[in-house]
Amino acid sequence: MDLQGKIALITGAGLGIGRATALAMGRAGARVVVNDIDGNAARAVVDEITAAGGEAVAVAAAIGTDGSAEACVDAAVESFGRLDTLFACAGVLRDSVLWKTEDDAFDLVVGTHLKGTFQCGRAAARQFRAQGGGGSLILTASPAGQQGNFGQGVYAAAKSGIVGMMRSWSLELVRDQVTVNAIVPTALTRMTATIPALAPHVAAMERGEPLPQPLREKGIGTPEDVAPLVVFLASDAARGVTGQALGIGGDRLSLWSHPAEVRVLQKPGGWSAEAIAQGWDDVAAQGLQPVGVPLDF
């Protein structure tokens, strides 16, 4: 996949999926703006890209704080003349059940994921429209946002909101030839190490041990397994792909469905509570919808 001539901005690129994608973008020929809250981590990724013959610059900024998105986009324009792709990957976890979740944890998770993605998407869209020629917005969703997950209500809400923004933005930017998609990655990272079922596998990966094949078949892989989907979505080969949520992880590539009605009943004149109770068995005849991310690893 050839990304020669393209300029890519990747947020949260100091570690994990962001880092793996920044390196993959560089190998594919893109010039890369590497953002991370940790400036040393961002510069280390830049050094890896340039050591391999690529071009990259680092921007230390906390995504979700005012001005950080604009600083990243400005760095792309000042360093390389334009922006072609934004991969919004920055994120944090503060998992807890509803009754134990404090406001500061809510604000941090929603501010980084949802507000941060909004601000980065807005800054990138403004640049795309000003320079012309299209572009690609690639957002980061999560199985938790698609299915829910115990102890991750705030994170799930933020990730679900990102997919909602993606669908709307894909409609708003179609005239500008800007594609907007979300990836739904399942990879072992330091963030997923907080999930008890995944923690042993993260430790094994960090020791350099290969992942069990059954785990890969279920869609759990490494950050390097996720990066190719982002490279594809940034390429000209994906110009016709927009408004989609695409899963990637381990040996699995998937297309997620959009929410849709699964059963509809009509009642002339409308529904009373009693009528709903009487008709409920028909509404639920095919079963209620499942919730929760499977964690049988």
TrEMBL record:
<dbReference type="InterPro" id="IPR036291">
    <property type="entry name" value="NAD(P)-bd_dom_sf"/>
</dbReference>
<protein>
    <submittedName>
        <fullName>3-oxoacyl-ACP reductase</fullName>
    </submittedName>
</protein>
<dbReference type="InterPro" id="IPR020904">
    <property type="entry name" value="Sc_DH/Rdtase_CS"/>
</dbReference>
<dbReference type="InterPro" id="IPR051687">
    <property type="entry name" value="Peroxisomal_Beta-Oxidation"/>
</dbReference>
<keyword id="KW-0560">Oxidoreductase</keyword>
<dbReference type="InterPro" id="IPR057326">
    <property type="entry name" value="KR_dom"/>
</dbReference>
<dbReference type="Pfam" id="PF13561">
    <property type="entry name" value="adh_short_C2"/>
</dbReference>
<comment type="similarity">
    <text>Belongs to the short-chain dehydrogenases/reductases (SDR) family.</text>
</comment>
<dbReference type="GO" id="GO:0016491">
    <property type="term" value="F:oxidoreductase activity"/>
</dbReference>
<dbReference type="InterPro" id="IPR002347">
    <property type="entry name" value="SDR_fam"/>
</dbReference>
<feature type="domain" description="Ketoreductase">
    <location>
        <begin position="6"/>
        <end position="194"/>
    </location>
</feature>
